[in-house]
């Protein structure tokens, strides 16, 4: 709870998004302040007109006696001035009530003044209730309550109309009950605030535990990839290097060199991926440039060197594309060529790029394979699914399916977003 003031929950923007009843409920305390302020106008008038005690008791009796002696006209004149004075005092008291939750010292000071001047116990009861409900300084609440109790006893018992037992009964009714209710409300508010804080803390801890679990899983995946995949690829590169040195003919040496270079590139990319999985700051971003459309010639050349008959063609006028679009186009051709090599060895493959005014259409298709592979390499089964996700992140569409002659076709359409705009959409890759 606040010590110097009260901050209502919810900002202005949050309140605008809430339904009307929720906005009214959020303002309920301020509405209560205004209702109490309005109620204290007639209350103050009744306390003054009735039988005021305290410092204003004798002047009020004197004014009544003078009005009775000097006649009706003068009495009306004095009554009007007394009414204006009561109205002014009531307006001042109501203004103080508006700040009962934000200015507790002002509230207790006004309660002391009204109690000593004309015996107003309502202001004192409201001050005790408000402080008990909104503030947690019990020591200060006890001091103020004791002070107002002493003032009440002084006004109503020392030369006043009440005896000590009657004053005690009045104190229990007008002070004890509001104070008890205020303490209950304040304790409940503190309990709810503590429970809310605890729930938020538990939620933050759950997020931290989830992040730790994700980090641990990523580290485990990186370790398994290093122990299994990187080890196997390294052995492949070493054997290819040995074959290149001891090859009996130039064709075999050329093929071994291609295998060795491809394996080294795979190891370099795998090392970057492992660095990202392990949250290594030095490996958070790839050091080598990411492949783009201009690298398609090198990619097609590598597959041709491996013995795949690949034809490439392009139509339209090339334009500057975003980095994400170019990377996606490269990965589409790469995955399609890899699938063709796995499932249709020795088949003719065609790569076609159609540069349109607002889109880039990529088509990779292969003819039926003349002979199935004796031992096709293992497949993860997630190549096309991952490719579809990549295309969706770029805002494009992907179609895959067999041709009428038994071949296979992969067609992707990518939007030509301006350079740089596609980066934000691909951040989740």
TrEMBL record:
Where, by residue number, does the polypeptide cross the bilayer?
31-49, 82-100, 106-129, 141-159, 165-186
Under catalytic activity, the entry for this protein gives: ATP + protein L-histidine = ADP + protein N-phospho-L-histidine
One GO location term (cellular component): membrane
Domain Signal transduction histidine kinase subgroup 3 dimerisation and phosphoacceptor: residue ranges: 217-279
Keyword Transmembrane (UniProt): yes
- Coiled-coil-forming residues are 185-219
Q: What name has this protein been given in UniProt?
A: histidine kinase
Species source reads: Streptomonospora salina
